[in-house]
Each structure stands twice: as structure tokens, then as C-alpha cells.
Amino acid sequence: GDSVTQMEGPVTLSEEAFLTINCTYTATGYPSLFWYVQYPGEGLQLLLKATKADDKGSNKGFEATYRKETTSFHLEKGSVQVSDSAVYFCARNQAGTALIFGKGTTLSVSS
Amino acid sequence: GAGVSQTPSNKVTEKGKYVELRCDPISGHTALYWYRQSLGQGPEFLIYFQGTGAADDSGLPNDRFFAVRPEGSVSTLKIQRTERGDSAVYLCASSLGGRKNNEQFFGPGTRLTVL
Fold first, then answer.
1. How far is CA A1 from CA A28, A38, A106, B11, in A?
2. Are residues A95 and B109, on separate chains, in Cβ contact within 8 Å?
3. A76-104: average pLDDT
4. Chain A residues closer than 8 Å to B59 by CB
5. Which of A97, A103, A105 to mutate to test the interface with B (most CBs of B within 10 A)?
6. If 0-12 CB within 10 Å is exposed, 13-18 middle and 19+ buried, where does residue A79 land?
């Protein structure tokens, strides 16, 4: 069935380091793709999204590009901050249906 | 404006008991979703409502789980004869609905512990 696979964590970085969290998906058709973030003690928040091939979603310095040819939606940030420490979830859906999430990747940034 | 709210925030119950979890979506959102998140995992889909009807309940694990949304707004997830394996955070999300309005907004969740 359709699924989302993201790199396992935890990912531990120093402040200002470059971040990549890999995400690949399987799906029939053309799903929308999302990155959600869960900060400690808070609920899931949408970080960014892309709805069609070659779209780039961006927010708070994070970016991800919808790559249909490699079925990927990798999350990147050029310079992470301590406040970026959280759990990041890659997800996909199609046309208003339920989201399918990856298992999540824990990011820990130290100063 | 108000976001998605869920009550209670925590629920501790004993094995075999019945529980109800409530979700109040964002006003005007016609689509409502329930998910379950176990420790160290991503949320897993349970059921999706469009208006008052369940458009997709394929994620409900068995017939002990049931959800309603009688007036197309508030939804209640009901779990009968709870088991220890039901312990998880139950998340509710809502969206405007439709093919293009598919951004889902999540509530803070209800942490269910079955002893």
C-alpha cells in the first residue's frame, strides 16, 4: 500500500549546521506532500507543503522540493538553531483523504 | 481564532472500561479526522468524516472503536472494552474539505492510558 519512509533518528547537530532529513513516498497518482513538526509538549503543526511535482515548500528557513522522478520530499535547512529541536514527520495525502505519516525523525540541536 | 480542541487532555482508565474522547474542530471545517499515535511512531489514521457521515473508517482497528459526528461539528471517538494496547495519544484534525483545501489542523491530543 501507499507509504512514507523517512530517515531514522535521532539526528544530533550543532547550532548553525546544515540539516537534511530524507523522505520518500510510494503512492498511486499525485499526492500532496507535507512536513509536520512537533515541538516538545506541543501538538503537530504544519511546517510546509507541496502539492505538485517540482513545487518547493518553504517556511522558517526550511525547504523541501517535491521530486516525482525520485518520489522524494527531503527536508533541508541551511543553519539550524536550538529552537528547531523537535520531531519532524513527513506525510502524504491525496485530495482530502487521510494523511499517511512516516515514523518521525527526532532532531536535537545543541549550542 | 480558536484551533482544534480535544477533551480530556489525559484519560486514565482500567482495562475493560468504556471511554469517550471529544474533538471540537475549527468552525466551518467540514472535514474531521481521527488519528492514533503510539510512542515513537507517526500518527495512524482511524476515521475521516465529511460533514456528518464517515467517508472512510478503514483505519478503525476493530469493532470496539466507533466515532460519531451527529451535527457535522463536534465528534466523539468511543472505545468499548478498552485494552492495554489502546494506550496512545488520540489526535483529531480538521480541514475545510474538498480536493484543494486539504491542509489539516491538529488538536493537542488526548493521552489515553489503559491500566
1. 9, 26, 25, 33
2. no
3. 91
4. 98
5. A97
6. exposed
Q: What would the mean pLDDT of A58-79 be, rounded to a whole number? A: 96
Measured in angstroms, the CA of A49 and the nearest CA of chain B are apart by: 9
**pLDDT tens sequence across B2-52:** 899 999 999 999 999 999 999 999 999 999 999 999 988 999 999 999 999
Q: Name the residue type at position B82.
A: T
pLDDT band (50, 70, 90) for residue B70: very high
Nearest CA-CA partner of B97 in B37, B52, B61: B52
Distances (CA, A) of B103 to A17, A21, A103, B9, B115: 30, 22, 20, 23, 35
Q: Which of B40, B50, B91 sits opposite A44 (nearest CB)?
A: B91
